[in-house]
Batch of 4 targets.
Target 1
Amino acid sequence: MNALPTLDAHAHLDPARPRQDFSACGAALAMTFSLEGAAQALERDDELIAWGVGCHPRMPAAQHSFDPDRFRELSARAAVVGEVGQDGTWRVGKKLQLSIFRQILGTVAEQPRPVSIHSVGATGLVLKELGRALIAAPILHRWTGTAAETQEAVELGCYFSIHSQTARHSKFRSWVPLERVLIESDQGLNDPPAGIPARIEWTEHLVAQQYQIDVRELRDIVWQNFARILGEAGTRGLPGGSARLIQQGLHDA
């Protein structure tokens, strides 16, 4: 068995759950939907969970209540930013989404953090903004872009957190170097956290098949990639509950 735990690069965990509920979920980057949810999450101290600061582009309440100063203050206390981005279902107006995404990217450019980015139906728009902002180590969550867009994203320095539903796409094997790969569950708030390792292990199996490597080797690579992201973003020394997760990644990778 691999000594490293599973690493979920994009999950949604309920910060109201008791600590013991997360004891068997492996290591996870836990994304929030709103600044209100992020403020609650950042009060926690979970051993292998790094809580993110998010403003989901598909959620009107989160978007309309966004405050750039509050976002800056919260993200200064966090190891990760997410879930943020652009959403092509347009449940929230394009103009508002774009304004908020630009403000978030501007803050992250000045105050670097790994960023987990939503781009459903808006892959081209997201790449355009990443080309303007040039932030460190952006992570494209559940990426659905074309092969050409994927190649562009690689050239922009993006990482890819691969979900089981997209793991079989040949564009990853063809265009994404292994050193840019992470694995994600996109776990829902109401899903049992203890189920995360099984979901990650299944996706690891699918991705390892794509790259024709051993699953254990893939997990080692994912942890090494996570450590590299932290180095690129300059977040290795961040205090708080996520510090143990970060240090494990740096020590064991």
Target 2
Amino acid sequence: MTAPERVTYVGHATVLVELGGTRLLTDPVLRGRVGPLRRHGAAPAPGLTQGLDAVLISHLHHDHADLPSLRRIGRDVRVLASPGGGEFLGRHGFADVTELAPGESARVGEVTVTATEAWHPGGGRFERESRAVGFTLSAGHRRVYFAGDTDLFDDMGKLGGELDLALLPIWGWGTSIGEGHLDPERAAQAAALLSPRIAVPIHWGTLYPLGLARLRPGPLSTPPREFVARARDLAPQVEVRVLAPGEATSLA
């Protein structure tokens, strides 16, 4: 029986990628609350973290490298992390950590994981000092790009070519986003540069400050609609699939 090739948008930047019989989980945030941020949408499915082959950490900001979520998975999980991640996670008991700088690769089962450039400066309340990266995942004829958290950067277009899927951040966790992030307009520009067969928007609709959902609900639902509209204009060759937290799609 052929293993499924699909992605599940767990929420925020957490995506389960099933490729080549390998299960990879990106930037796990599995809790109902992270500091003052409350989770919206579906909770992670039971069994989500069972049988994981590795976790990918794009950078060490609290909403991407959430220690309680990583502990829930287990300290023996294999982690591929951005530069600086090995020392940080090692201090917290995670022993199997490999740092990948842009251009460096590691093999996980049938998947080759390669770190890519990203532009995401730090400095906010949820941000540990760290360097950010993205990742490409390749297995057989399949190729997936997980952008992590980034804005547009000069060589982004060089990551394109024969991409089955691009997982593109389109928002954040608040009512506005600052530098180092893609909003729906710039995410559509990224889709145009990368020209993947499929684009799935991530980093939206999941984490939001406690109490704001009633007062300013728009950022929980409008970013993907705006992304779809702008991608239709800027990247009409790309099929956009919007997944709510908890939903999955095949790479077929």
Target 3
Amino acid sequence: MTTRPFLTLLMLACTLLASACSLTPTAIPPTGTAAPVVPPPPAELTYDMLANFTWLAPVSGRSITLVDGAYTSGSDSSAEDFLQATLEARFALGDLDYDGDEDAAILVAENMGGTGVFVSLIAVRNNNGVPLQAASMYVDDRPMINDLQIEAGEILMDAVLHGATDPMCCPSMPVVLGYRLYNLSELVLTRRAGQTSGGAPRQINIANPADLADAAYPVIISGSVTIGPFENTLAYNVFAPDNTLVTGGSVMTDSLNPGDPGNFTLSLDLTLAGVTGLVRVEFIEYSMMDGSIMTLDSVLFNIP
């Protein structure tokens, strides 16, 4: 064996070895590491979903399975078991239970024979994309519903309802009503604004603190009335986050003459009672005739 071929092979081997050593190593992905899982957005409630669902009808107390928003039991309107129910076209979406998902507010009308069509408001929770009936509130017989919305957790309904002397066919009393969901199963009236017989607005407006704002004791609550209440006196009630009544009393407005607009202020300190969280304070004007609520406004504020 000659020396030249051997040297040639040796030099070639060294060249290949040097080239291999000079290569930059590539990163090897670690094993067993899964890609991050992005949760899907919460499923939304739709009108079609609500219109093809089983509900407990609030007035009749019967279970109704809607098909395209309608339900009928029986063909004879004079029969005891006759029931027609419909889901009104007007509905609202918004977060009622502060869990971040869009819930719903719907209106169900029931006719059990005769001329009465009894409309109820139903609060519907979003249970992972499935409707869950939470609470209901009777509205009126054949009301005129102008608008239905959910704002900052409050259901707001603009409607024309029956006054004390209205014939059942023809409501004439314009109102704005507000409701909040408590304990996941209870609708509470949180707002009522209306008009006098002459068309003047009758309402209480709380100006401070802002709704859902953070606050600290003592909380100064101030507002106004468009029409001074009887003897310039409003009632107030204070509720804990679970809707338990904590205290109540009365507050005076500064209306100069009966029926004049005015202002009111209440200083509230529940430090000794230890009430924290979302505290609700409502101010009410009661009718001196029958004790019914003429107008009402409330505010939610958070005591950390």
Target 4
Amino acid sequence: MKISRYGIFILLLLTIVLGASCNYYNRVMARKNLVDGAKSYQERNFKEAEERFRKSVEYDPQLTTEESKTAQLFLARTIHSEFAGNRGDTKKAEDAIVEYQKALTGFMNGLTEKRNKAKSNPKDQKAQNELKSTEESIGSIVRAVASLYENLKQDDKWNEWQTKQSANEQLPNNVRAGAYVALASKDYTCANDITDTEATKKTVKDGDKDVFKFSKPENEEDYEKLKKCVERGTANIEKAVELDPESDSAWSYKTSMIEQNRRIAEIEGNTEKAESLKQDYEKAKTKFNELAEKRKQAEDEAKRKEAEEKAKKEGKKAKKEGEAENKPAEAPAEKK
């Protein structure tokens, strides 16, 4: 049976129209379930929220739209919240990790395009906001997965995750820096657990002052472990500071790792190096205090603006309600 060219054209046209209609329907339903899921989430009805977010994602499992990416992220957060409410249900934690990783893939797709758009249009506030929102979502996902691995006490997976994210050059610099800081924090704990003990830390007199004097651990294996932790931690925190030089958290741990290096220098009798590291410690501490104060001021300003905006909205609402109450009633229609 032959089909005319006109018939083929009509068939193609119908296919396009039906496909467009289907896509439109899918987006509408995905958005509806996203909105309903968000409402349930706010009401802490997590079971209902999880079902809604899953339905939303089902309309676009490839996460090609911003709505589906948001739904996927909130699906992960909902399951995470369910785990937080019952820490014994570790299956929820494992499920949340899987859903977070899907969300991360979704947000990473198109990130380069958003960066290029924001870079080429610095005055385009919408492009800047979209990039900022995407990068913030990526950061929250990376931290959430790490937190879940930590809660599950899966140290190897935690370390593997943080190492992988710190080395991922596609991630925002501050997110990579955060992963390096997290790794350095473990190294610092490892070192401090060895140097901050009664066996290695003694209080001695330096003139009229009481100061700490550090000595080598009796166990040689502990000393080798100490040096490895300090070496690794120092390398990690230097990378963190390089990626995000304005991070007060990074400078905090840099200060701590300098002190651990100073303790090793003191143990080894290298007075000159110990004194130099002491000066580095004071500089790093000053930088940390400056950045911490700067962050606090920014947070206070953000809270002030938020409170101001809230007061404005409440004022407008009260004014509108007052006008409605004082509005004179309409006279009844005259009977004819």
